[in-house]
Amino acid sequence: MIILSDKNLIIFKLIIIIFLILIPFSISDYTDNVIPEKITSDLRFYEINTCSISLNEFLIHNPNVIYQDHYKIRFNNYSSIKCFGLITGIDQINNVFFISIGTNSIVNLFLQSVFWLLVISLIKKDHFKKLKFVEFMSLVISSLLILLLIYSEKRFYNNAFFELDLNLKFSFIHLLNYLLFLGFYSLQILNSRSNQLINFLPFAFLLIGVFSGMNIYFLFLFFTYEGIKTVLTQKNIRKNFNYLNFLVLFWAYCAVGMFYYLKPDKIRGLSHADYNFLSVFVWSYVVIFTIIGSYNYINTRINFVNFNLIKNNFLLSGFIILILGYLGSSMPYINFMNYYYFGQTKYGTDNQNLFSIDSWGVTEAWRGFFPSAETIGEFFALGILLSFLYKKNSKFQYLLIFSAFVGLLASNNKAALIMLILCTVLKLIHDKKLNLINKFVYFLPVILIIVYFIRLENIFYSLEFSANKLIQMSSSYGLDIGKSSALIYLENLDSKNGLIRFLILSFSFISFLINRSELWGIFFARYNPSISELFFGTGPFILSNHYGEIDIFTKRVFTGTELGFLLPHSSLLLILVFTGLTGFLAFTLFLVNTLRKVRVLDYNLFLIGLFISANLIKSDSILYFPSLLIYLLFYCLMKKKYKILL
Amino acid sequence: MQLFDIEGNKVFVNSFQECQHYVSGGWNYIPNQVNESQYHDAFSIFSILAIFAGYLFIRKFTIGNKQ
Q: Which of A33, A181, A188 to probe by mutation at the B interface, max B CB count within 10 Å?
């Protein structure tokens, strides 16, 4: 057998990667008499000749579609396998042409996985090991669990697989084979590069890895396996895991007889769609195993963390995200390829102006490549913060820092910008050991910036107005019939205990200052837990009941525009929905305790922890798996510090 | 376009080829379903063989490393 050297192997893999990008969207019968016509408003040719012209063949005859922004190339996952990569139709709406490309969820599963695995395999492997029995069992169990998830989320997957009837046993045998195949190769490639891979976690923001047409991240295949293996092999984790079984049963029991459904939209991959007993039961285990697996994977390799490499990878991936986001905003072909090959949950933006202003004179957030402007803004700010804390930047890295700063400003994430400045000032004060007056001088710019963003006039509103704003907003969105239990509680706040009133009004006051009154008001207008759900939540990353149970006013109160799918914009509120007050309080105490401990051990890590914690209050970043991985990485780094101390 | 057969069954077609298929092919043979199931059979067999091949390759590779 020919064994290629490392360098030749990389070249070989790169050639295959290029083929994987070009070939699937080029296959069609070039000898037939169907020659693509120039695209005009007369679209009869494309109505007749469906599934005959490949995307690339079409682009050769219509090169302007590659770069003119009034064309939109869109996938159609409900196509036959034979129709993959071919044009299934073209529609014109006003002056925009929508070009539909046939894709198929099963082909996506293979093609995207192979592409991502090949990209990951470019990282040099550090060891290779044979599968043990327990690992093989974990692989089978994880594949069965994901298969059961597909079965239980029928409402989502019925429209995902073309001519694969989910009522037939044979369909599941096929799916199980596919999952075993992908799981097997994922764990071989990821396990053999595990020690180095940890430093490349920031690239998860670039290679997001959600299968097109499915509600699952590619990395779940591996981390579910890793989680099951950890539970089977580690006694201490297994002991704590037993308590979780009761919680999972409780969450699933709450879903009996409920049939709420949430179209996952931009949070696809980490959002449960079909709310019923079985799907809540299976989804909860998948999420729990994935979190345990990710944590264990990172924690056991934490000694291989190289801060300089992580910093560099933050900046480099940020730079590529910015460039691809901008290219994708103006070039339909790049936009489509970004979506498909990076596994985006939503197409990149088509707004080409990074600093645009809407009709109300408000700066618009530019999300570029990523589905959430807020989360990508945090990512850029974290990259800059790391470069400041772990200095010795090269000239090239300064260029990358500049691009990250442009990305941060474009994302319009004011909280991330303020926290970045605050953490920088805290670091300077800590290193220089200043007296009180000098400390104040250093803090002054931060205070001025905070006042500028909050706006001076907002500070001078009466306390009664600002502290009640959230409740007022919540009431505006709640309907007279069928109010949520949270809204009813808030509207009767005057009759409640003084301490509870103080806490809620303080929370409302803070929400007013950070411009979250409306979003959090909408959240409480929808939040309708029973007593037991208030204490234990409704399950991890399950929002279908939150969005389906209570009807609220469907238009924005101030603008009259459609409300759309608005998330609460607070990871802490999401934790409250998922795990109830018990989880919320445990998580908050745990966060405060971790920060308190690490402050004396490693000030840099403390600042990173502070930055992340502050952003958790007002962003939805936990709903994106790349963010979760980064948070786990920094948590494991902090934990390592106390271990050394002990 | 909508097509009907003698028993009153009806179908919407989107292209000339699809129309031609129904006119000459009858109702019982649905090419999409047959094609798809053949593709799935092929993918399934490929997946199983690839797992075995990978397993054997890795076994040989790791034993080679130990020596």
A: A181
pLDDT one-digit tens code per residue, A523-570: 999 999 999 999 999 999 999 999 999 999 988 888 888 888 889 999
Residue A215 in any domain: the answer is yes
Tell me the ipTM for this assembly. 0.84
Chain B residues whose beta carbon lies within 8 Å of the beta carbon of residue A89: 14
Report residue A390 as tokens. 């772990």
Q: Quick check: is A1 in a domain? A: no
Q: Nearest-CA residue of chain B relative to A52?
A: B17
- 3-state DSSP helix/strand/coil % of chain A, to nearest 5: 65, 5, 30
Q: Is the pLDDT of residue B62 over 80?
A: no
Structure confidence at residue A560 (pLDDT)? 81
Instruction: Give the closest residue to A199 by CA, choosing from A377, A329, A386.
Output: A386
Tokens 């594949």, located at residue: A143
Q: Total structural domains in chain A?
A: 4
Name every chain B residue with its beta carbon within 8 A of the beta carbon of A106.
40, 43
> Which of A303, A321, A348 lies at the terminal end of a domain, its last residue?
A303
- A187 and A234 both lie in a single domain: yes
Same domain membership, residue A99 and residue A110: no
Task: Flag if A188 and B58 touch (Cβ within 8 Å).
Answer: yes
A375 within some domain: yes
Of the candidates A48, A162, A178, the beta carbon closest to that of B36 is on A162
The pLDDT assigned to A521 comes to 94
Residue A433: inside a domain: yes
Domain range for A115 is 106-303
CB contact under 8 A, A180 and B51: yes
pLDDT at A8 over 90: no
B50 is in which domain, residue-wise? Answer: 2-66
- Reply yes or no on whether the pLDDT at A37 is more than 50: yes
Q: In angstroms, rounded to a whole number, what is the distance separating the alpha carbons of residues A623 and A611?
A: 18
CB atoms within 10 A of CB B20: 11
| A49 vs B contacts (CB less than 8 Å) | 15
pLDDT reading at A590 higher than 80: yes
